[in-house]
Amino acid sequence: METRFIVLFSVAFFVFVIGLWVLKIDQKRRLAKKEEKPLSNKEIIALLDDPLTGEKMKVSETQNEYEYSDEIPDEIVFYDENRRTSEHVLNKYYTEDGDLEREFILIKNYLLDNGFNFQIFSESEIEFLENSITFTSFEDWTCTDMYHKNNLSFFIANTTSKAINSKYHSRNENTNIVLWVKDFKFSGHYCFIKQPIIHNIVNVFIDENTEIIKGYKTEIIKKSTQEKVITDYFKNLNSSFDLEIEVFNSNIIIRMMNVASYENMIKLLNSLKTSD
């Protein structure tokens, strides 16, 4: 009888302890659920796939400075190439001078303010660029931020090329501003590369008339009798620019080797305007 009582007491005590343990866990679970902040509508809509894990993550998790994405304006979460970014957002969220993202937003605002429209290139336009000497030299390239006005197109080129003179299989990646002028009154095919400074000094003592674009080496693919048209178009080109220029019949492709910045783009556009 005594043994039976001890067994029953032990079982009852064990059940009591387990019950307390389960109750305590349930209380913690309820408390955690109560304190958990639900996803906002913006966070639910803007769920992203993590490119590394493939798992969903909130937009707010990509913004280290802000806990919840409701604190971030819509124009940051949902970037729109057709909409101007406000000065408030630009000065609050893109504050580092020289940062590419800030520079591209400044460029976008300028282009939209001056009558340019965003439109993705057509298949025929991409094919033309791919067959140009400017882009066939790269292992890979992509274009973004395509804006157009009349016969002038602007875009950002992201290029990848193999490193030269390297024992390692390294690659060079660059981001460049590109201008594409269409309907240029010309027939022929020429490429121009910026000459080193020492060549420009030597040319002073030779014959400057041999240069079609001052300070640039000329490669002729198809000879033209209209070289003066090119000279006149680029007569006011800023000497500080480092450009790769390809003139192919009615097209001019200008790839800026200088840092991709709003200031450089403005200077280039102005120098071409004064050449018209």
Compact description:
Keywords: Membrane, Transmembrane, Transmembrane helix. The protein is α+β, with helices and mostly antiparallel strands and 276 residues long.
Q: Could you characterize what this model shows?
A:
The chain crosses the membrane at residues 6-23. Keywords: Membrane, Transmembrane, Transmembrane helix. The chain is of the alpha+beta class and 276 residues long. It has a domain at 117-273. It has helices at residues 2-35, 41-45, 74-77, 87-93, 100-113, 123-130, 133-136, 197-204, 227-233, 262-273; strands spanning 48-49, 56-57, 117-118, 140-149, 152-162, 171-181, 189-194, 216-222, 243-248, 251-256. The termini are far apart. Mean pLDDT is 76; it is low at 41-70 and 198-202.
Topology record:
Elements: H1 2-35, H2 41-45, E1 48-49, E2 56-57, H3 74-77, H4 87-93, H5 100-113, E3 117-118, H6 123-130, H7 133-136, E4 140-149, E5 152-162, E6 171-181, E7 189-194, H8 197-204, E8 216-222, H9 227-233, E9 243-248, E10 251-256, H10 262-273
Antiparallel strand pairs: 1-2, 3-4, 4-5, 5-6, 6-10, 7-8, 7-9, 9-10
